Every structure is written in structure tokens, then in C-alpha cells.
Amino acid sequence: MAMWIGVNRRARVCYGFDDISLVPGDVTINPEEVDLSASIGNLKLKIPILAAAMDGVVDTKFAIEFAKQGGLAALNLMGIYTRYKDPYEILDQIIKSPYEKSTALIQSIYREPIKENLIGERISEIKKGCGLCSVSSIPMHAERFLGICKEAGVDIFIIQSTVTTAKHLSTTYKPLDIPSFCKSAGIPVIIGNCVTFDVALELIEAGASGILVGIGPGAACTSRQVLGLGVPQVTATADCAAARDLYYKKTGKYIPMITDGGMVSSGDICKAFAAGADTVMIGSAFVKAVESPGKGFHWGMATSDENLPRGTRISVGVSCTLKEILYGPAKVDDGSQNLIGAMKLSMGSLGVRNIKEMQTVEIAVTPSIKTEGKIYQSFLKAMSHKEK
Fold first, then answer.
1. Is 83 in the active site?
2. What pTM does this model have?
């Protein structure tokens, strides 16, 4: 659906998580009997959640613990863990820096060269701790790092940038040949980020084992503000899922869509699956875990860009353990804890048994869904902020 925004100029109406709600079906199911398992390539996951490759979220210890809880955490190969032998001293500097100076400090810290020996060391640490490891690299360094990662035993390689397409043009450097890379990798390759049907389909046809969906929705990302780019996550997920379904119909090969960013609560996660996601990638929700290296502080992957930072450092605080965030019991009522329990209850209430069925539930456009009848909640929140 499109609307006129000026003479001879139309714009498509798109939807985010706050614009929709899920409509219960005719049957309800015991929440404990739903199946939340997911697959990426030949890898099976107990829960359909990935932890984002951000330095405040995932270090080697967090990756190990996250895998033990049934998910998959991605280590940022462009981050401080591959630049510094002792990254925790560096983390402490970032955390303690005044907000107004934090971006400049992060820029200076990330000028330290990446050390290839540390890449192998970090992957080996994760593999020894849990046997499951994924890493993320920008396209420019993917070929350089792949061999090191495979030798260390990495399970999944992620190629990630603000916007990734199968056709990247440049006259000053050689772009990554994505089809050739995926064909020779020998392990599943996840590629992102994108938000449109055409690009998702081209990346799938290029050999991707999974697609990251989302440009700019993350809590610490400022790409939408700086570049004006982005499509709300519900529409982006639905469009990319349509490319997945078309490819599956033509080839019989199923390539999962991974909604990346923009999910503030467990309800948003449920909506992502209803929109067509097979798994989700989350960052800020896990920074609240006592196990997170950021200790409640979180910054975007592009915050360190020397010329045009597209991220900021935010503080979300530390609330509980990773296990409590994933499995509860929840001590708060805002949907930030017991994500798995919330997903199971939502799916049971919708009458669906697995993620595939979740993708078929009825969706309603409901811009008032979070405010209808909630005047007293709004009042209490306002009073709470006033007291602070």
C-alpha cells in the first residue's frame, strides 16, 4: 500500500513492532508443549535467539554461557577482543568515560590494529568452553579472516555491515565476491544486513545460509538518524521472509531469516516471528545480564567509525542473570525477563506449536495497542520519573 506524499511522489506504508498486535486463534495449546528449536545450516539450536556481535554484549565467557543456555552468540572480529590481549582494561575505560567523550574515546580505542593470533585464541577459548562458536566480520576482511576462523573451529561465519548487497560496486578496492566466498567457505555463512525482498533474494541465491534483517533499529545504532536509512522491522521481516518462501518454493532449500534489532520486549520478539522471522538477533536485552562484558553499557558496531560514527554508547543497567533473562523467573513486568517463557505463553495463546506455525498467525494493525486502557500505567510511570 502506498500513499501520495507530493506531486508524482508516493511512499509505501511500513510497520514496526509498536504498530501491530497478534490475534489469538480458535485453539489454545499448553505453553510447555510448544517447540522453540531452530536451525541455521546444519546447526540446531534449542532456542531461536542469537546474541549480537557487539563488544558490550559478547565476549568469550558470555558466548560460552549463552551456548549453554541453548542459543548462539556471535563474537565481533572487528572489536576489542581481537585488538587487545587484555580487553577488560579497555572495557573499563569505555564504561567509565563521560557520555559526551565516549564516542571519541571509542574511536581512538578501535584504531588499534586487529591481531590475527587473537582471533584464533578467542575462538579456541569459546570452543573449549562450549563447542559452539560464531563470529562476525565486515565484508572487507571476510576472506582474510575465514581461514583463521575455520582452523580454530568456528561453526558459523557472519558477514555483516550496515547495508549489504550481493552487488557492491567500487573502483578503489575489490569488493567481496559473495557467491565465491559462500561456495568455498565450507561452513554456514550468514549475511546482513538488508531490509528488502530483492536484496534478500539475491543474497540467498548467492549462497547465504541465513539473512540478517534490519537496518538501524538497534538501541545503540544511529544509522537512521545519521543516514536516513531504514525500514520498520515488521515490514522488513515480512518482505525478506517472502523472498525466503519464494526461494524455498523454487528450490526446496530453506534459508532462515534473522530479525536483527529493534526488539525492546518479549512481545516484540513474538511479533518478529509472526512477521516471518526464523530466529532473532538481540543486543541490548543481554547487556542487562550480570555475565555481559559491558556491565549495563552498550555501544553500536559503527560507533568506532573514524569519519562518520553511526552508533552511540547507552546505559541500560544490570538487572539479573542471563538465565533469568532467558528463562526467568521474571522479577519485573516489562517483558525484559523470561523471554522464553513469554514466547511459549504467546504461542500457546495463539494456538501454534512451533516457529513455522507462528509465522502464519493473524496480525492486526493496531497503533493504539500499547496505550488503550493504560492511562493509570502511564500516570504511574510519569510519577516514577518525576520522583527520580
1. no
2. 0.94
